[in-house]
Amino acid sequence: MLLEICTNSFQSAKNAQDAGAHRIELCQELSVGGITPSYGLIKQVIENLKIPVFVLIRPRSGNFIYSDDEFKIMTRDIELCKKLGCHGIVSGVLNSIQTIDIERTKVLIELSKPLSFTFHRAFDEVANPEDALRQLIDLDVTRVLTSGQQSTAIKGLELLNQLKQLANGRITILPGSGINAKNANCFKVAGFTEIHASASSVIQQENSLFSKPQTVSNVQKIKAILDAI
Q1: Beta carbons of 16 and 51 less than 8 angstroms apart
Q2: Cα 131 from Cα 52, distance rounded (Å)
Q3: Which residue spans within 125-219 are E strands per DSSP?
Q4: What does DSSP assign to residue 153?
Q5: Distance between alpha carbon 162 and the CA centroid of its chain, in Å?
Q6: Torsion angle of C-alpha atoms 50, 54, 59, 61, degrees rounded to 10
């Protein structure tokens, strides 16, 4: 089973590599669900680490319905990621009626080629997940990151299993949210081939009046998940 770690900084990415994770999703601002990382962060990770890097393309927090200007930013960020040598793109667009924006998502997929394309957790907001999965299969999406439309993947395991059965090998179902060393093996037993986790710890910065807690991928937690699977 493959373990993807969601990383929000260079240190988190390095910790994921040092712990033996198979791949990272690189983003920033995990507290709001993640947004596109900076050019400098992507370049630093690609040039200094060897772990495969998938980059989140999300221009802001909030919903997944984007203006023309925001969509243009997304296309330019994908072009930049390809030039920098990233290994995959994580993105997606919805319509206001809780369905996949097929035309815009198709543009992102085509622009990402030949890189792997993951439709992110916008999937968990669609009204009909079965119909949405069929659409993603038709669009030739590589995988879909989802918690089974629940707060955690373990709570959404019933729907995740239904989606995996519907996918029938045509698209990878990537369970994510709340996966840890205690429950990771449940997904392996259920037949999933990949899982997504942050495996992070909150570090309180000291000796600074304005410092806030920092979330960083934890080497020991990642190793524990790997041991479990």
Answers
A1: yes
A2: 31
A3: 143-146, 172-175, 194-197, 200-203, 214-217
A4: T
A5: 20
A6: -100
From CA 107, how far away is CA 92, in angstroms rounded? 10
Q: What is the largest CA-CA distance in the chain?
A: 54
The number of beta carbons lying within 10 Å of the beta carbon of residue 130 is: 12
What is the pLDDT confidence band of residue 18, given thresholds at 50, 70 and 90? very high
Where residue 31 falls among pLDDT bands split at 50, 70, 90?
confident
**Run of H or E including 4:** strand 2-7
pTM of the prediction? 0.94
Task: Walk me through the domains of the chain, giving residue ranges and CATH numbers.
Answer: 2-228 (3.20.20.380)
Give me the residues paired with residue 195 across strands. 3
Q: Are 181 and 228 spatial neighbours (Cβ–Cβ below 8 Å)?
A: yes
> How far out from the chain centre does Cα 98 lie?
20
Q: Given the structure tokens 């198979």, which residue do they identify? A: 22
Q: Helix, strand, coil: what percent of the chain each, to 5?
A: 40, 20, 40
pLDDT digits (tens, 9 = 90+) for 88-129: 999 999 999 999 999 999 999 999 999 999 999 999 999 999
E-assigned strands of 44-187? 53-56, 88-91, 116-119, 143-146, 172-175
CA distance 101 to 114: 21
The token pair at 227 is 């041991």
